[in-house]
Amino acid sequence: MSYQLYYWTGLQGRGEFVRLCLEDAGAEYADVARIEGDDAIMPFLNGDREGAMPFAPPFLKSGRLVIAQVANILQYLGPRHGLVPEGESKRLHAHQLELTITDFVAEVHDTHHPVSNELYYEDQRDEAKKRAKDFREHRIPKFLGYFEKSIERGGGRFPLREHSYVDLSLFQIMAGLEYAFPKALAKQKVPLLRDLAKRVADRPNIAAYLASERRVPFNTNGIFRHYPELDD
Q: How far is CA 180 from the centre of its chain?
């Protein structure tokens, strides 16, 4: 099955969580905006295409289906590509973990845009410093501690006792924090998370993807942004 992924060009952003799933599965997909430009996204956002109308990218087109929201997309892809365990309870657990990751990603974004998305970072720098301090001291330990405990309860290797799309998203979280908040991340005692992230990076399809031009480098236009003053 071939998919069409729609996300803004030039940044990883939320689209990267979907790309990692597709790449790990070895699925055939087109990253449409990288081929046709960002204008290819707008007819869907404006409601001018058939299917469910997405609020924002990323969204995935699979046949006539248009599926938006990262956790929703991964919930769709997981069973189709062996990236979630069998059984309702496991799939609900995977979705619960992914929604928690979604919450964390929103808090990462708000460290550099705590006032408004319509303002530049430079216009809210003082507020960002305050928000980032709380994020470093309280929110990073709280979220990573939760995911560490989830891996421990899953047997020490995976939150769901076997590889799933949740592992791919946790890898992206750790990679993003390493770029944006290296000092804060270095202080976290999360050996199981670090081991999981390394094992994901070593998976053949992921390793090939990370070494390819398809993996856009982290930059200061995405969700994970490195501003040294926010990691002080």
A: 14
Question: Nearest CA to 44 among 53, 34, 35?
Answer: 53
Closest CA to 167 of 73, 84, 67, 79: 84
Residue keyed to tokens 């990692």: 20
CA 125-56-29 angle, 5° bins: 115
- Domains annotated on the chain, with CATH: 2-80 (3.40.30.10), 88-202+227-231 (1.20.1050.10)
Q: Is the pTM of this model over 0.85?
A: yes
Rounded to an integer, what distance in angstroms lies between the CA atom of residue 178 and that of residue 184?
9
Percent of the chain with pLDDT over 70: 100
Span 15-24, mean pLDDT? 98
Angle at 150 between CA 148 and CA 151, to 5 degrees: 65
Predicted confidence (pLDDT) per residue in 203-230, tens digit: 999 999 999 999 999 999 999 999 999 9
DSSP state of 156: S
129 CB neighbour count, 10 Å cutoff: 15
Give the percent of the chain with pLDDT over 90. 99
Query: 218, 224 in Cβ contact below 8 A?
Result: yes
